[in-house]
Specification:
The structure holds two protein chains of two kinds. By secondary structure, chain A is mainly alpha-helical. Helices cover about 80% and strands about 0% of the residues of chain A. Chain A has a two-stranded antiparallel ribbon. Classes of the chains: A mainly alpha, B alpha/beta.
């Protein structure tokens, strides 16, 4: 009796998997990629520790870029200062630990709260400005925070930052900790991606795109633009803050590097690479960029660091010309086209068989 | 109580009065036409009624409530919907999602609880205007004539008491025009009240019971289609003096 229940459940699970993932090439690709990421540390073994650390950074970057894309690629609010949230995440968890001695599993949720509130605060002045002006306003935010941190350097540690932050798995060995960090960040990235995906495909997500496309028409549809813009800031800020907090504990330090301008520019490069306005785009782009930056340009081809930026710029120019909507987007669309062709062929064969039978 | 009451509405841009001391009212059950040469202030009047522009003086009352100068989305949620002269589709969204946006507004979502139900309701709207075939097509790929119908579907999705149509027949061929005339007649029978701005007078006169004529921001005539067609001032405005 019980075995029958189990087999029916398994069968239903497999059918659901087959229709929702196997039959949809882009989703299959995503599933395979995730499977690859999941088994990566095991397949590469102890000697691949540098790669595990590298991909842990990629996980964080992917989370950060995905949060940026919700605000910019999906709701159209240009943010050139996203490092603000990253820095808030890092410093909030650091200061809560140093001054209140709170453990990680309290400091990180608290810093998420702080980050989301700051996102709402920061969203207000952004409501009235658009385009280049919005870009400039957002650019100023992390700079302002850096200024505040310098002013209160007795509290915030100034140039050195706050160090000695607790690690996630201090009870594990050197190698095991890094693998555990990898899986932790991968899990949190998966959860973030699922949440962002659900938001994107909800009524809220559709309204976000309507604001991106035509604010006036959206207002005329009865949408309270202010409410939705602030919501976009809040959600985006939440995940960006999470990325910053996690990274602070991975490095065991929170310093001004978490507020650098280059960090604010990374999501732009990444989403152009991967595909703006999607959830998988920035995630794919984050991995591509990380592998390119930390591996290809250092190990495969030995190029001095000064040349890296030039290569990136050339790379982006080629990308925008060849795949303006991003590489991951290009691959997804190609897969969908192939699937359509296959389906048409199937239908054609089916009709041909039917006609043959009739003639007989 | 009138459905809509516009009193002494005035809007100036610099020294020019785009709408100059205009007053009229619309009652339940009416379709009113709003005509006048280009630049007469018709679209500006729509902007003033729906909150996209704030008037310099005058009031707009809807169902007895003063809605002058309220934010556009608030006015929509009280029951006035509008279309735009130049279509404004949400290009990145498929056609059906275009209609789901107004259904997500507070007023539009009153009877809806789930995402699936929103989709179904959007499909109903698309059926009413005859756009179900291209429901999954991104709006940027859709032809102009169909986009006009999408505009209307979006407007009626907010379940308005008063529908303001700004040149709904613009850019439509005769077949599409006939189709739209029938759609509008059906909407009227369903209980929608409307003000229609339109240049294609042969289509408009078939639909409306009353016509208001604007010229240089001022109301110069009001009456039944027949009266207006024979009104000397109106003929002068459209044809010029000395006819």
């Amino acid at each position: 009796m019980r075995t029958k229940m189990v087999t029916t459940l398994l069968r239903r699970a497999y059918l659901s998997f087959a229709t929702h993932i196997l039959d949809v090439p882009p989703r299959l690709l995503a599933f395979l990629s995730f499977f690859l990421l999941l088994t990566f540390p095991i397949s590469i073994g102890r000697s691949g520790l540098t790669f595990v650390v590298m991909l842990t950074n990629a996980n964080i970057l992917a989370m950060f870029a995905a949060s940026w894309d919700l605000l910019v690629g999906r709701t159209g609010q240009i943010s050139m200062g996203h490092a603000l949230f990253y820095g808030v995440g890092a410093y909030a968890t650091a200061l809560l630990f140093v001054y209140y001695g709170l453990p990680i599993w309290i400091t990180i949720p608290l810093s998420l709260l702080v980050g989301t509130l700051i996102a709402l605060l920061v969203g207000f002045p952004c409501l009235r400005v658009k385009g280049a002006y919005l870009a400039l306003v957002t650019l100023a935010f992390p700079i302002i925070l850096v200024g505040l941190l310098s002013y209160f350097k007795d509290i915030t540690g100034g140039e050195r930052g706050v160090y000695g932050l607790p690690r996630f798995f201090p009870f594990l060995g050197f190698y095991e900790q890094r693998v555990a960090n990898y899986y932790l960040t991968l899990l949190l990235l998966l959860i973030s991606a699922i949440v962002l995906y659900k938001v994107a495909n909800s009524k809220t997500g559709i309204v976000f795109v309507s604001i991106l496309d035509d604010e006036l028409a959206s207002k005329a549809s009865g949408i309270n633009i202010t409410k939705y813009k602030l919501l976009a800031f809040a959600i985006s800020g939440f995940f960006a803050t999470l990325a910053g907090s996690l990274n602070a504990h991975l490095l065991s330090v929170a310093n001004k590097a978490s507020l650098e301008v280059t960090l604010s520019f990374m999501p732009i490069i990444i989403t152009i690479l991967g595909g703006i306005g999607t959830v998988y785009g920035p995630i794919a782009g984050a991995y591509i960029l990380t592998i390119l930056d930390r591996y290809v340009l250092k190990t495969v081809v030995d190029i001095p660091t000064e040349w890296h930026i030039i290569i990136y710029i050339l790379f982006i120019i080629v990308l925008i010309i060849r795949w303006p909507r991003g590489i991951a987007r290009f691959v997804t669309e190609k897969l969908e086209d192939l699937q359509e062709e296959r389906e048409l062929e199937e239908r054609g064969k089916h009709i041909w068989k039917r006609e043959k039978k009739k003639k007989k | 109580m009138h459905l809509l009451e516009v009193e002494n509405l005035t809007k100036r841009f610099g020294g020019l009065a785009a709408v100059n001391d205009v007053s009229f009212s619309v009652d339940k059950g009416e379709i009113v036409g709003l005509i006048g040469p280009n630049g007469a202030g018709k679209t500006t009047l729509f902007h003033l009624i729906t909150g996209f522009l704030k008037p310099d003086s005058g009031t707009v009352k809807f169902l007895g409530e003063n809605i002058t100068g309220l934010e556009p989305h608030k006015i929509v949620n009280r029951g006035i919907a509008r279309t735009f002269q130049v279509v404004r589709p949400f290009r990145h969204l498929p056609v059906i999602a275009n209609v789901m946006v107004p259904l997500s507004s507070p007023r539009g979502s009153k009877k809806i609880e789930w995402l699936k139900t929103t989709e179904r309701k959007a499909l109903d709207m698309l059926e009413e205007v005859g756009l179900t075939e291209m429901m999954l097509e991104p709006a940027e790929n859709v032809a102009h004539g169909d986009l006009k119908r999408l505009e209307m579907a979006r407007a009626i999705a907010t379940e308005p008491e008063l529908l303001l149509l700004d040149e709904p027949f613009g850019g439509l061929n005769p077949i599409e025009t006939e189709y739209l005339v029938k759609s509008i007649q059906r909407l009227h029978l369903d209980g929608h009240n409307m003000i229609i701005v339109e240049h294609k007078l042969h289509a408009l006169m078939k639909l409306v019971q009353r016509v208001i004529v604007l010229h240089y921001g001022q109301k110069i005539a009001e009456g039944s289609p027949k009266e207006i067609a024979n009104d000397k001032k109106v003929i002068e405005v459209y044809m010029g003096k000395g006819v």
